[in-house]
Design goal:
alpha+beta; about 350 residues; elongated; six-stranded mixed β-sheet
């Protein structure tokens, strides 16, 4: 990567004895979109607030265009931010809300009016310029918040759980809208989410966080197909992560599961990752020519619209399997064959629980 547009360098933030952000480093290229993804309390929102300037790091640097900004107040940072709760001024119209940041920057009236009109048109709300937030839907308020962030033409756009207050259907629509607007504006973007689907759909790279640290940062396809960190493999998507050992060219993951190591497997695998949506259930006794073929028992089956989510047992192991509901279903208690091709299997190499890192 050339010199990053945004660089987080060993950021640390503590609250008393608790370390919320623990040495976070992250380079972000110009125009790139990075998602900070992780469970509640992992440090993703604190990291975003450090970049925004709402809190100050105990140590570490934040560089934007090579210039240190970690000590600058929020209004001195060329940053636009969209808050989880939108944070619109209720006494201002949509146009007034969008204009606010320009007024604070002493932009003249004529230019301000033009830029507000352009920003509202960009988000499809030119016809609601004179409407107040209380008379807008959640999706419309979100669009106003986006227009307000983009109208100042920021160097960096920050999004804090931007879709969490919307219903499921509108979340998909707004996700597509944000992707369009971000691509159109070409703005470097950092956004926080706990929604894996949102992160994988919007981001060029996803930084997975746990206990104040970035444990893995990669393109969505790399994270889903080839997770390298044990936490990522267990957290991201529907997967079963099984510990095991290598003996005579095969990986043994407890009773009932043994896999021949393919040529591209790591030298010292410590865990196998089985992707639920790429596993198959076949009648007992089936013997397809696949890397994974094992007798199993259906323990639970839950129908969810277009899919059935199974839990099957191989001895003491429990494996998640997702199959289309159009297939013949297996009832709990049924004997089956668990099968999976190479695309259903990934490997974690010699992971150390003590260090949380690879040797």
């Amino acid at each position: 990567m050339p010199d990053p547009h945004l660089l987080l360098d060993k950021l640390v933030k503590r609250y008393g004895a608790a370390t919320a952000v623990d040495g976070v480093s992250l380079p972000v290229a110009r125009g790139e979109c990075i998602a900070l993804l992780g469970p509640s309390g992992c440090g993703k929102t604190t990291t975003l607030r450090l970049v925004a300037g709402f809190i100050t790091p105990d140590s570490g640097r934040i560089l934007l265009n090579g210039q240190a900004i970690e000590k600058a107040p929020p209004h001195r940072r060329p940053i636009g931010m969209v808050f989880q709760a939108y944070a619109l001024f209720p006494h201002m119209t949509a146009a007034g809300n969008v204009a606010f940041g320009l007024e604070m920057r002493n932009i003249g009236r004529a230019e301000r009016d033009q830029r507000v009109a352009e920003a509202l048109a960009m988000v499809g709300l030119a016809h609601l310029a004179d409407r107040y937030p209380a008379r807008m839907s959640g999706g419309q308020q979100q669009r106003v918040a986006l227009a307000r962030a983009l109208v100042i033409r920021p160097e960096l756009l920050l999004l804090d759980e931007p879709l969490s207050n919307l219903d499921a259907g509108l979340r998909v629509e707004m996700r597509e809208e944000i992707a369009r607007l971000r691509a159109q504006a070409g703005i470097t973007t950092l956004f926080v989410t706990h929604d894996q689907e949102e992160a994988l759909a919007l981001a060029d790279r996803v930084a997975v966080m746990d206990r104040g640290r970035i444990v893995e940062c990669a393109a969505p396809a790399d994270l889903t197909e080839r997770p390298r960190h044990l936490f990522t493999a267990g957290f991201l998507g529907a997967r079963s992560v099984l510990a095991g050992r290598v003996e005579q060219g095969s990986f043994h993951a407890g009773q009932g599961l043994s896999l021949a190591l393919p040529a591209d497997a790591p030298t010292r695998p410590s865990h196998v990752v089985l992707r639920a949506a790429r596993l198959a259930l076949l009648p007992a006794g089936a013997a397809p020519a696949l890397p994974l073929v094992a007798p199993a028992m259906v323990e639970a089956a839950t129908r969810l619209d277009d899919s059935i989510h199974y839990e099957v047992s191989l001895g003491a192991q429990r494996i998640r399997v997702h199959r289309p509901s159009s297939e013949p279903a297996f009832a709990p208690g049924a004997a089956v064959t668990l099968a999976g091709g190479p695309d259903a299997i990934a490997w974690i190499e010699d992971f150390s629980d003590a260090t949380g890192a690879h040797p």
